[in-house]
Each structure stands twice: as structure tokens, then as C-alpha cells.
């Protein structure tokens, strides 16, 4: 007799709603518990059988994944953007929990990767560094927006330098606007030292990982980019092929097609119409996409094996934007191979095959 149970959790800040289905799809239990360790574990321990559990990716997903994994047969953290069934019909916490259990039982969920390992400290260091970098960039943009709003040219980084600030502030005229800009400068002065400390912590933590040595052999993958690659990808073995990595990074091309086949002279033939290209996939890891894009931009403007590869793409008549995309995909593919196999980067293997 199949004793499998399928548990759907709809998790919120205060409460968690659980729906439990048996192998035949019958609802055998429905409960609302407080969102805390003791109550959730009590609920799981009260259910008998082979437990398969799912919840949507969100604020609580990492905590619950690590908490429940030792207590159930399988935990699936699913992508909420792909759960179209939850958007149909009536909606409530109980309905959502049951629909999640039904999707898990049918095998229709798209799992989100969760890894519990030695890279946790590096991931936290990378998260801190990226957050502070974004915060500093926002403040810099706001400072320049003040000057641009008055028609004052402020290209470059001189506008941020402490020794030139009095000169720039004098251009603003109105005292209220100067006070606002001075506060922005104060924010920047506090963020930049914190960002430097986070960078040092990131690099120190990355030295504990052997993959850093291999990744830094790739041109324009410096210490910070290598550390971020390890933190964001966690392990190369989660990607079976380079195309899976491209899709995760947002470098995969999405296409839309319909009525692909037709009947001619009684024979089934493929239609001659062009496949409609819809651009790059929007469901992506934004930080990883930016990393590969910035690496490709750096490589395309300087001499070297990757720069030569980019130049050959332009010679073939490929537009610069598409050539940079191809180069970014090539760098991603090289990263995957070098990291998986632990081998040195070999520029002689750079060829004109599709990236």
C-alpha cells in the first residue's frame, strides 16, 4: 500500500497553513499553526507515512528548507511565478496550500535550488557586499540627479570626491538644496567604508574555496568576481549543461512559435515560417547576469583571447550587442567547464562554435 503523503505549506509571517493529501489525492489533514520551529515540527511529526513537502520560494523558504529537510522524505521549494494554478478561481490560504499539495503530487512544480553546505558564510558575505554596493550606487545616482536637475554637467567621479565638494555645493545656490545634497554626501561617506569592509570579508572568505584558484585563471575574472561566482552559483554540478546556466543567468533566448507543421501533398512537413524570437528570458539571477555582462564588456574593449574572440564575431558581421551577448555566454560556458573539471583555462580552445 502506498503510504505517501503530499504536504503543501502556505507560509506567512504569523501563521502557516498546511494541507495534506494522500496518494489518491484525498485531503486527509488541514491545519493552521504558528510560524515557528516548535509548532511546525509538531505538525510534521504528527503525520505518518512517506512525507513529500512543498512551499513557495520567499522570505521563509531557506529557513524552512533547512529545518524540515531532516524530517521528511523530500522538500521542494517551488517557483511561485510558475504556479499558474494558484491564480485561478477562488483564493485563500487553505486553497493555496491544497493546490500546492496537488501540484506536488502531480509532479508539476518547478523547484528552486537550495544548497546547505560550506558556502553559507561566503553567500552571506556576498549578500552584504552586493547590498552595500547597490546602496552606494543609489546614493551616487541621487547626488548626480540633483546637479543634472539644474542643468549642471557632472560626468565622472569628481563630483563625489571630498576635496571638491565645497566647489560643487556652491553651484547649487539655494540653501535647502545644498543641505539635502550634504546629507546625501554624508550617506555616501558612511556607505563606502562599510562597502570596503564587506569587500575584504568577501575576499577573505573566498580564499577558503579551492574553486577560486581555478576561476581566477579566466581572463577578467578577478578576485571579487570569482568570489561572487562561487557565492551565487554555489556549485557547478547543479547545471547539467551550459544552456541550463544560460537560462539561470538570463542569457537564454526565448522563442514563441505555433502551427509548426503542415500537410503538403498528403505528407507531414515543417512549416517554413520563421521562429519568433522574444528576447532573453526574464526569469533570472540578476546579479549573475550582471557579472557575466560586465566581464564581457571588459573583455571586449581590451586585447586578449576573449577580446580577439569578440573581434572575430564582429568580422563575421554580428552586431556589437549580439556579439557581447555571445561573448558573455562563452564566458559562462568556460566558467562551468573550468569549475566542473578543475582544469586550466586554455585560450587555444576558444573557437567559433556557438557559445
Can you walk me through this structure?
This protein has 355 residues and is α/β, with parallel strands linked by helices. It has 3 domains: 4-106, Nucleotidyltransferase, domain 5 (2-Layer Sandwich); 120-208; 216-349, no CATH class. It is built from 12 helices and 9 strands. Helix 2 (61-68) links the parallel strand 4 (50-56) and strand 5 (74-78). Helix 4 packs antiparallel against helix 6 and helix 4 (120-148) crosses helix 8 (223-233). It is globular. The mean pLDDT is 91.
Mean pLDDT: 91
What strand line-up does the widest sheet have? 3-2-1-4-5
Sheet-strand content, in percent, reads 5-15%
- Percent helix, as a range, is 40-55%
Give descriptors for this structure.
355 residues; alpha/beta; Nucleotidyltransferase, domain 5; 3 domains; two-stranded antiparallel ribbon; 9 strands; globular
In short:
By secondary structure, this protein is an alpha/beta fold.
Detail the topology: elements first, then pairings:
Elements: E1 4-11, E2 15-22, E3 27-34, H1 37-45, E4 50-56, H2 61-68, E5 74-78, H3 93-106, H4 120-148, H5 165-170, H6 175-206, H7 211-215, H8 223-233, H9 242-249, E6 253-256, E7 261-264, E8 267-270, E9 276-280, H10 286-300, H11 305-315, H12 320-341
Helix pairs in contact: 4-6, 4-8, 6-8, 9-12, 10-12, 11-12
